[in-house]
Task: structure prediction
Amino acid sequence: PSPRSSVIIIGAGVSGLSAAKVLAENGIGDLLILEASDRIGGRIRKEKFGDVSVELGAGWIAGVGGKESNPVWEIAAKLGLRTCLSDYSNARYNIYDRSGKIFPSGIAADLYKKAVDSAIQKLKGLESNCVEDATNRTDFTLTPKTPIELAIDFILHDFEMAEVEPISTYVDFGEREFLVADERGYEYLLFKMAEEFLFTSEGKILDNRLKLKKVVRELQHSRNGVTVRTEDGCVYEADYVILSASIGVLQSDLISFRPPLPRWKTEAIEKCDVMVYTKIFLKFPYKFWPCGPGKEFFIYAHERRGYYTFWQHMENAYPGSNILVVTLTNNESKRVESQSDEETLKEAMVVLRDMFGSDIPDATDILVPRWWNNRFQRCSYSNYPMISNNQVINDIKAPVGRIFFTGEHTSERFNGYVHGGHLAGIDTSKAVLEEMRKDERQNDKQNQNF
Ligand code: FAD
Result:
């Protein structure tokens, strides 16, 4: 017979590990974690680049210094994770045109304000259309056309929406953001979390309740339990399953369900947009960009929206590392993922030479993460449409029989963030524990009746 566990957790990212930790703390000793890749961490991932650790996935602890304490910030502080304050709101004052001139800050500030006002109007229009189903009221909003307008539109919509609509992360936890700059990586948090309930030795997890390289392909479920089949032909049984695969994976055909998921579930999963967000790292022999206060971020204004727009230097995080990071999103991310890194490097160098002149040195190394083409991710994070009712997220989160769903995309208030994944994992495991208690009560009753 196949091994049977009380709960199988699929995925060892922050949500899966948080869920497992809560279950273990509540006496569920026979849990099993199946992870498709060869490591824990999921979308929290460091990699050596040059002499330092860079974060390919989550880089910031967002939402610090407010009325409530961000739980991820608390864990990071307890572990002494090295971080540095990082404020990208200054980016709008360092916008370069293609001839290397910086747009005067007055013009940039003015255009930024107009873009925010326009986005607010658009949001209001959408809200009233939603409620009244009236004719389109959004035609008075601005459509960005010039390179600087497009650059500002990109900063506002792909990074900073906080000025347009309140984002729970900043409202609840505060407006500050800290960049993780620790050689052990953001993922150190997860190793320490795992260490609390899995057996480790010399910094390695040696516990057979965590199985790596186990790609789950099928979940067969009934009122008695769930049968989990993996790509390598293994079969595992459980009373309950917690599935933490990303929204991108749920939209793909990696995992099939028998019987299939109900329509309300698949429709909700389709309604959530996926955001692809790619940080490309470039290493140089020396620094040629401005540093100092307010200069950590700079922007390139090009006639194509999102074309190598958003730049950051790593001098605050790792002085002397001579590393630049450029962030691409969605279509630009997908485009770059599908070409060679040499082509990407060439494109980035043309952009940098536009901004800083032809005599800057070539990058000596490049690192291009591929979140979209990773079949265990298929996205960077969930992105619910601006006007979406809570029903969509509630349906995405709702269990189907004995299969429970978790992950950042199931966090109503903090989707898209590490703390969203962490809190979702805790929430889902509590819901499973509640079901297990109900089962127990029912079994007791049945036994009494006999
Ligand atoms: P994941 O980390 O994706 O964990 C799910 C796990 O399931 C993965 O390990 C995956 O391998 C595994 N899996 C998938 N399919 C299967 C299968 N079939 N069988 C078995 N295992 C499977 N958040 C912030 O707070 N701050 C930031 O600055 C930030 N920046 C980001 C930048 C990038 C580039 C990316 C990609 C993400 C960023 N995020 C950021 C978001 C944050 O990383 C995620 O919200 C969070 O890590 C998601 O955790 P999770 O547990 O929900 O999912």
Notes: The longest strand covers residues 235-243. Residues 131-139 have pLDDT under 50 and may be disordered. The longest helix spans residues 418-449.
